[in-house]
Amino acid sequence: MSFTCxxxxxxxxxxxxxxxxxxxxxxxRQAPIDKKLKxxxxxxxxxxxxxxKSVYPAYALYPEWSNKSVHHFSANIQIPxxxxxxxxxxxxxxxxxxxxxxxxxxxxxxxxxxxxxVYIGDTIRAAFDGKVRMVAYERYGYGxxxxxxxxxxxxxxxxxxxxxxxxxxxxxxxxxxxxxGGNTGRSTGSHLHFETRFLGEVINPEFxxxxxxxxxxSDSYLFIRGANYYERQRKAALASLASGKGLKTExxxxxxxxxxxxxxxxxxxxxxxxxxxxxxxxxxxxxxxILRKGQLLRCS
Length: 300
What we know:
Elements: H1 3-54, E1 82-86, E2 99-101, E3 104-106, E4 109-111, E5 114-117, E6 123-125, E7 130-138, E8 143-150, E9 154-161, E10 163-164, E11 171-172, E12 177-180, E13 191-198, E14 201-203, E15 209-210, E16 215-216, E17 220-224, H2 231-243, E18 256-258, H3 265-272, H4 276-283, E19 296-298
Antiparallel strand pairs: 1-17, 2-5, 3-4, 5-13, 6-12, 7-8, 7-11, 8-9, 9-13, 10-12, 13-14, 15-16, 18-19
């Protein structure tokens, strides 16, 4: 073998060794960069989580957040035929137990809540965790009132207050003081007007809250579209639902999933037999969206 060939082979071998060493050196230099990138990703994740927290409660159900009107909602709002509302973690809005006016027809108009006897200056508390949507005054209606939207999908309204002690867009916990009892607005004596609504539809508070016993009626409430006002109507709807006639059952109605720790879009899609793309379409999210614990996802 000629000297020239030996020289060429030696140069090639040295080049291979050099390239391997250069690659290892590159990887060594890359490691700190990877750590920095991971730190950046972690920071972005933290920021995303904080951004998720700032979104209004039950945003999977409500298409918008507005401080302008109590009962006005977007035409895009979709009211499910049935929906199970979680009532755990509640707090009675007042310790008083006397109901002075029930939910239903009154004085040639509908009374959309319960009136509970309270005295001026009595503490009124938030019924569930949530975010204050409105703090306003209505001279010929609610008087000084507070509206809170909750993670379980309910909105609660507290009317005729003498003072509001929370601000709009403020997060509150169940039991936090939100106002003081009063006699403002369309009122003939000091009392609390307590109203419960789901996607704007009135629910008779007595179907969920037992004021005399200072407790909830059960751990959850089955919302049935159009059957949350009168006891007779509700019983008929429940009977129809149980027999499979007239109303869709929970198995065939619109279904929702409450996100738990560790849930992924893939796992949820397999559980409800719906594609990930369909889940994203139903909820206005992307495949890369971060799921928030407690978030409600529509699955059908």
